[in-house]
Amino acid sequence: MREELTLEYAKQLDAGDELKAFRERFYLQPGTIYLDGNSLGLMSKDAEQAALQVLNDWKTLGIEGWMDAEQPWFYLAEELGRMQAELVGAKPEEVVVTGSTTINLHNLVATFFAPQGRRNKILADELNFPSDIYALQSQLLLKGLDPAEHLVQVKSRDGRMIDEADIIAAMTDEIALVVLPAVLYRSGQLLDIEKLTAAAHERGILIGFDCCHSIGAVPHQFSRHVVDFAFWCNYKYVNGGPGSAAGLYVNERHFGKRPGLTGWFGYRKDKQFDMVHEFEGAPSAGAWQIGTTHLLSTAPILGSLRIFHEAGIERLRAKSLRQTEYFMQLVDELLPASLGFALGNPRAADRRGGHISLEHPEAVRICKALKARGIVPDFRAPNVVRLAPVALYNTFEEIWQTVQALKEIIENKEYEKFELGRNVVA
Ligand SMILES: *Cc1c(COP(=O)(O)O)cnc(C)c1O
Fold first, then answer.
1. Which of 311, 344, 359 is the last residue of a domain?
2. What is the pLDDT of residue 425?
3. 257, 276, 311 - which closes a domain
4. pTM (2 decimals)?
5. Closest residue CA from atom 6 of ligand 1
6. Is the CB of 229 inside a 6 Å radius of any atom of ligand 1?
7. Ligand 1 pocket test: which of 102, 187, 209 has the largest number of ligand atoms within 8 Å of its C-beta?
């Protein structure tokens, strides 16, 4: 076998990895290869510590935790926003950690979708995650507009990717707002945010991005590209824990605009407790908060973002690209087309996000066979095995083991032992 295809070579890559020590900070289960960090990132000791700290502060301080906790609860959402800003290339006050992905999308669209005359449609794509589409539909309905006419979804040419040229061609004078994923959840395609933002602005259109599949894996330059807004969850690559608080970014040129869904936690912090009825929003992304910070689902993010700060998002991206590159090389060399696999993610480094999208007609049963071997992928209908090597905790050796397992599962017809049909949570 060629040297680069051997287990020894994978081990050498791990030995030369400058980020390898971060793996020790995570809880990895013995005998398991976890490649599902793009659905739910693993718990770090740092996140656990931060969560325990809040529980202890609650236990010992009660109400005083808002101001007297080690990390005062009252300012935590803004503090985490400042820390998270470096992941998306934003100014510290342009980011806040709050709400959930879908709630933040609702609030941002309620703020930035202002239909006027002919310009009364929202542009999205046909491959986006359903929750985003449901939210866009309901925002249109709330304005008395029929989604069948006012939600334009750019078509994919191959069922995997969306062509930027097709998106730009759809930016007509009927479009008021564009909402797109930064990285597509199934194929892992990374859209050209700079180009799309410039094209939207040239046409007088506002634009925002769902960064659920890029945050913590792919750096962004939102301030430089003057992206209007963005939103994301913190439980995938950010490792904030199941259902953890989400994040949002609003470009500073929109500060002072009244959020679509206002609440008292978006009020100027120095005067929030004046309890007056005229809303005066914080002069920051903090204005887009609605209610009281969800402390128990926010605290772990503090520990997690400290890890990101130490590792550096650029270094993490560089390792992630090396890992997905290596993954693709092994797929090309060890899983010949005769075994039925096809790569569904873009190959170019500047076009792919953090995961590999491996297509196979037997994807459902292959995922079950992988799990039976202690390898955790996820399945995305109808035919995708999604595999995310996470730069903070996955090794090159694990990638090698996974490709070997895939080869054996098909060659030995191991998958035939499993039932067809996906599980309820897939
Ligand atoms: C994970 C994900 C969501 C999840 O939304 P929640 O409100 O956190 O449940 C939404 N959109 C995309 C693109 C996602 O990947």
1. 311
2. 72
3. 311
4. 0.97
5. 101
6. no
7. 102
